[in-house]
């Protein structure tokens, strides 16, 4: 006999949690289904452990760069202990109990949709008026000869390891590769970063990749661009990657930061009328609707694979179910790489704007030459801000920042892009002195618009 619910949420990562919480608060009867841990990839194997482990090294860098402070040392034992606390020692029992107390029925297991409004979880049958698909994504590992012979890690092994390797080869130069290189090198691991592209962070402005390359190289990372891993093998206790330029790289572990793919295979989504895209992503409309009474949120949609976007989509889908629909907008959403210093961006790149037929003008500001805050923050200050403006609408359409705490102050540009604030109004804004936000005033003055 099946159990009936108002809403069944398949996957309890950040997006699923936001949607479930909103629906429970509205008095809906909700089933939350999770095959692993409530909190998802972000809470246990990605965002939370990675940012927790990046912070100690960042703090040491801050001490080293500030006048009058000394003797900052990294302690892996203490850092990993705090990491374990932050990821709840891979135990979600408190989250299970919490949802149960708030009225949800918590079901652990792999869910499969068997028909419109019908779900099977092992030997348990459910029906639901609405289904929210929030099954996330999974790491992609290239199919290389000899892969089974080497020590191969993804983000999961990297950010839950108890013991650091002495050396690592990281395959992939996007956000994950950049953050992982920063984390490991700062903790004394010899890192080689291999990327098939001609520059790091290829989805951002070329200047961003150039600065990222500069700062990673300065931290001792060996960066190999324009090469691809072809084969692997083991020599003694070492893992070896053979590259297509004829060279080899040897290390204790090989970490694959080669992207993620939506987790949609063999879950029966087509039985509810859901359409999958060319990369396996669930196709959704502006309300995150995937089919009649079926919704999809987060990485599984393939739209913008960020935790904050999943949480936003969770609000969009839940509100639509509650009869308060509003469309999703992905304009100006910030994206941050927690390097050292931080790398942040929002909106379009110049190339993307050109593809859309937008006429633009850009400027780049060296923070140390324009404002006081970099000098009060550190010696030999680092940091740049780039702005991209639409010459017709006279609004910002893109921005990037590389510098201390860039992930915090990129939101000024994010809001301006999202709400299309006229540049003349932005120029009239008064920023607190001395802050990094003052950079916007200086950069806006330089825009020839």
Name the overall outline.
globular
Low-confidence stretches: none
Q: Please work out how many helical segments DSSP would assign.
A: 16
Distance between the termini: 67 Å
Strand content: 25-35%
Averaged pLDDT, please? Answer: 97
Note the main sheet: 8 strands, mixed
Structural class: alpha/beta
Cα-atom radius of gyration? 23 Å
Task: Report what the structure shows.
It is a single chain. The protein has 449 residues and is an alpha/beta fold. It has helices spanning 14-25, 40-45, 47-65, 76-86, 93-101, 155-160, 175-186, 206-218, 307-321, 350-355, 367-370, 373-377, 406-409, 411-419, 423-427, 438-446, and strands at residues 3-10, 30-34, 105-108, 111-115, 118-121, 124-133, 137-139, 152-153, 167-171, 190-195, 222-225, 229-235, 238-243, 248-251, 253-256, 260-262, 289-291, 294-296, 335-337, 342-347, 360-366, 384-390, 395-403. Helix 3 runs antiparallel to helix 4. The longest helix is centred in the N-terminal third of the chain and has 19 residues, at 47-65. The protein is globular.
């Amino acid at each position: 006999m099946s159990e009936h619910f108002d809403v069944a949420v398949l996957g309890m990562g950040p997006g699923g949690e936001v949607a479930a919480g909103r629906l429970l608060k509205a008095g809906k009867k909700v089933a939350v289904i999770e095959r692993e841990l409530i909190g998802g990839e972000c809470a246990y194997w990605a965002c939370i452990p990675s940012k927790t482990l990046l912070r100690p090294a960042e703090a040491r860098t801050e001490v080293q760069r500030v006048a009058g402070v000394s003797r900052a040392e990294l302690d892996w034992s203490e850092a990993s202990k705090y990491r374990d606390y932050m990821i709840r020692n891979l135990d979600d029992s408190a989250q299970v109990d919490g949802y149960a107390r708030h009225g949800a029925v918590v079901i652990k297991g792999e869910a499969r949709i068997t028909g419109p409004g019908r779900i099977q979880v092992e030997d348990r049958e459910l029906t639901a008026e609405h289904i929210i698909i929030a099954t996330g994504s999974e790491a992609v590992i290239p199919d290389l000869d000899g892969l089974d012979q080497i020590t191969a890690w993804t983000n999961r092994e990297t950010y839950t390891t108890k013991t650091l390797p002495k050396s690592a080869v990281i395959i992939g130069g996007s956000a994950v590769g950049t953050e992982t290189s920063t984390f490991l090198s700062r903790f004394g691991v010899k890192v080689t970063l291999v990327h098939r592209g001609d520059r790091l962070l290829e989805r951002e402005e070329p200047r961003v990749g150039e600065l990222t390359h500069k700062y990673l190289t300065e931290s001792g990372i060996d960066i190999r661009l324009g090469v691809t891993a072809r084969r692997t093998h083991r020599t003694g206790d070492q893992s070896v990657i053979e590259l297509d330029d004829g060279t080899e790289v040897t290390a204790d572990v090989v970490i694959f930061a080669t992207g993620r793919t939506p987790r949609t295979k063999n879950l029966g989504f087509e039985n509810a009328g859901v359409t999958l895209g060319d990369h396996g992503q669930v196709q959704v409309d502006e309300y995150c609707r995937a089919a009649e009474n079926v919704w999809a949120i987060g990485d599984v949609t393939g739209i913008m694979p960020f935790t904050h976007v999943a949480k936003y989509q969770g609000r969009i889908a839940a509100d639509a179910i509650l009869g308060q629909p509003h469309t999703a907008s992905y304009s100006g959403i910030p994206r941050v790489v927690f390097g050292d210093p931080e790398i942040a961006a929002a909106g379009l790149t110049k190339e993307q704007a050109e593809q859309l037929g937008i006429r633009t003008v850009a400027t780049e500001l060296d923070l140390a030459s324009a404002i006081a805050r970099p000098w009060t923050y550190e010696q030999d200050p680092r940091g740049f801000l780039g702005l991209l403006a639409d010459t017709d609408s006279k609004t910002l359409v893109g921005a990037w920042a590389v510098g201390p705490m860039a992930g915090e102050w990129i939101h000024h540009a994010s809001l301006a892009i999202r709400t299309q604030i006229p540049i003349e109004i932005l120029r009239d804004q008064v920023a607190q002195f001395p802050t990094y936000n003052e950079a916007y005033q200086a950069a806006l003055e330089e825009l020839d618009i």
